[in-house]
From TrEMBL:
One BP annotation, GO: protein secretion by the type II secretion system
UniProt protein name: Type II secretion system protein N
Keywords: Cell inner membrane, Cell membrane, Membrane, Protein transport, Transmembrane, Transport
Similarity annotation: Belongs to the GSP N family.
GO cellular component terms listed in the entry, alphabetical order: plasma membrane; type II protein secretion system complex
Subcellular compartments: Cell inner membrane
Native species: Isoalcanivorax pacificus W11-5
Main location: membrane
Length: 235
């Protein structure tokens, strides 16, 4: 027969489990209300449900929408299945936190570029970007691991002095030698741009093949770097 202490411990664990399950979500999510993201405060309201499962409305700048969540265990690791939507954008994936990192699995993302670029002074674009991120892990020290794909279905890009039709483009997310990469190619598999995260620094390089695709290049090799920038993460 089980010992009394074992039965008491099991009882306390069950009580703790049901107490956590019954906790309302509002007092916890309200702590994130006003959180600054990219210079804009995140507002959360109309919060319903429990920590275990619920939904809320959100607003960030001119963007607004709704989010819902539910607890989802992957093996012994608890996490949340999150579903966020607004302004034609939709993201759904599994998120979990460990002492040294944050993990995202099975992230499906859809972003309409017309909404993103509407207020950009440099120009506008239409079409939709979709992504399937199988695995993303961001470590406390800034290291990133990622695996997935991106797809731009094609559309029109316009700027002050002109515009161009853009064919479908493909992106690949991968990790190599502890560096997280995004590489974007055209239908002929010509590299247009790449982005990387290494040792807490993000970098982007654009190749001459990109302005050539837009019809504004004046010569040179496709693999010439025409623009590059780097930025410390969080800097």
């Amino acid at each position: 027969m089980p010992r009394p202490l074992t039965l008491i411990a099991l009882f306390l664990v069950c009580v703790l489990f049901f107490l956590i399950r019954a906790l309302p979500a509002a007092p916890f999510l309200q702590k994130a209300d006003g959180l600054m993201l990219a210079g804009q405060p995140l507002a959360l309201h109309q919060i319903h449900g429990r920590i275990w499962q619920g939904d809320a409305r959100w607003r960030w700048g001119r963007w607004r929408g709704e989010a819902n969540w539910s607890t989802d265990w992957r093996g012994l690791l608890p996490g949340l299945t999150l579903d966020v939507a607004g302004h034609g954008m939709h993201a759904r994936g599994w998120v979990a936190a460990t002492p040294g990192s944050v993990r995202v699995n099975d992230l499906a993302l859809q972003v309409p570029l017309a909404e993103i670029s509407r207020d950009m002074a440099a120009g506008q674009a239409d079409g939709t970007v979709t992504a399937q991120v199988d695995y993303l892990r961001v470590y406390r020290e800034g290291r990133v691991e990622v695996e997935g794909t991106l797809r731009y279905g094609g559309g029109q890009v316009t700027w002050k002095d002109g515009g161009s039709s853009v064919p479908p483009l493909d992106g690949r997310l991968f990790t190599e030698h502890n560096v997280a990469w995004l590489k974007v190619t055209d239908p002929q598999q010509t590299l247009l741009l790449d982005a990387s995260v290494e040792q807490c620094e993000a970098a982007v390089r654009v190749y001459r093949s990109w302005p050539r695709l837009l019809g504004v290049s004046q010569g040179g090799a496709d693999d010439d770097v025409v623009f590059q920038v780097s930025q410390p993460l969080g800097g």
